[in-house]
Design brief:
The protein contains two helices and eleven strands. It is mainly beta. The protein has one domain: Jelly Rolls. The strands form three sheets. It has a five-stranded antiparallel sheet with strand order 1-2-9-4-7. Strands 3-10-11 form a three-stranded antiparallel sheet, with no helix packed on it. A three-stranded antiparallel sheet has the order 6-5-8, with no helix packed on it. The longest helix is centred in the first third of the chain and has 12 residues. InterPro entries: CDO_1 (IPR010300), RmlC-like_jellyroll (IPR014710), RmlC_Cupin_sf (IPR011051). Keywords: Dioxygenase, Iron, Metal-binding, Oxidoreductase. One of its GO terms (molecular function) is oxidoreductase activity, acting on single donors with incorporation of molecular oxygen, incorporation of two atoms of oxygen.
Length: about 160
């Protein structure tokens, strides 16, 4: 029997990863899968947990306090998707001239290709929950700043470092 994650890797399409993210996001007990905050942790920071890592596909749960942001980043060549399980986020994309913003609320999802750079911001009161699926699994992410000449890389982190 082929698992959902295995099919996502075999097809390696953003559309299949979006279906995977939506399936995980439909779990009404998703919030129970987040770890307890570290003692002294900043309540204004995102928290996350890896939900699955199978056949080169991984799925993450991210909890977003209002105004928490990822900063501009890519996904190291992975194709990906995310679905909003609770609350809302805004995805910002720089199109070469302007920053475009898209609000995604509960039940909305978004798929993207391997060269996608974006910034995601929690915008709902309280905490929002999103589920992210990537293939191949995340190995690196590059951070960027948006300057006068566009997006400028500022560094790359690997999975062995704190995302």
């Amino acid at each position: 029997m082929t698992t959902t994650l295995h099919r996502a890797l075999v097809h390696s399409s953003a559309a299949e990863l979006e279906r995977v993210a939506r399936r995980f996001a439909a779990n009404p007990n998703l919030h129970l899968l987040l770890p307890d905050p570290e003692p002294g942790a900043d309540p204004g920071e995102r928290t996350w947990a890896r939900l699955a890592d199978e056949d080169g596909v991984e799925v993450w749960l991210i909890s977003w306090p209002e105004r928490a942001a990822t900063g501009w980043h890519d996904h190291g060549g992975s194709v990906g998707a995310f679905a909003v399980a609770r609350g809302a986020v805004v995805e910002e994309i720089f199109d070469g001239r302007d920053v475009r913003r898209r609000r995604l609320g509960e039940g909305d999802s978004r798929a993207f290709g391997e060269h996608h750079v974006h910034n995601v911001v929690g915008v709902a009161e309280g905490r929002s929950l999103t589920v992210h699926a990537y293939a191949p699994r995340l190995e690196t992410m590059t951070s960027y700043v948006l300057g006068d000449t566009g997006l400028v890389p500022t560094g790359t982190t690997s999975e062995r470092e704190d995302w």
